[in-house]
Fold this sequence. Notes:
Layout: H1 10-19, E1 25-31, H2 35-39, E2 43-48, H3 55-65, H4 70-73, E3 77-80, E4 83-85, E5 96-100
Parallel strand pairs: 1-5
Antiparallel strand pairs: 1-2, 3-4, 3-5
Amino acid sequence: MAVEPDGRDAVRRSAYAEEAGRPGMKVRVEFYGGLRQVAGASDREVRMEGDAPTVGDLADRLREELPGLDGHLEAAAFAVGDRLVERDRALAEDDVVGVLPPVSGG
């Protein structure tokens, strides 16, 4: 299995190529902080189905695809572009969604 410099493998790219004809939209998810290790990658493409998927729907999809994230997503913050967003925010084709772990300190 060939590994590209950004950590994606040729098998994953092939699977998304097969899905290209399916309805829905593609979004890119970027993981930050400790969530990168939990997710096993710094980013991931996710195909969302339905008429108007939201950030909350994306969180549910991530739980299905990456069960190790389940306990972390409730406290995570989500950003689209450079803005933090609520989970009811609608997604658009090719959105880049950042998943940020909780931050503490003073």
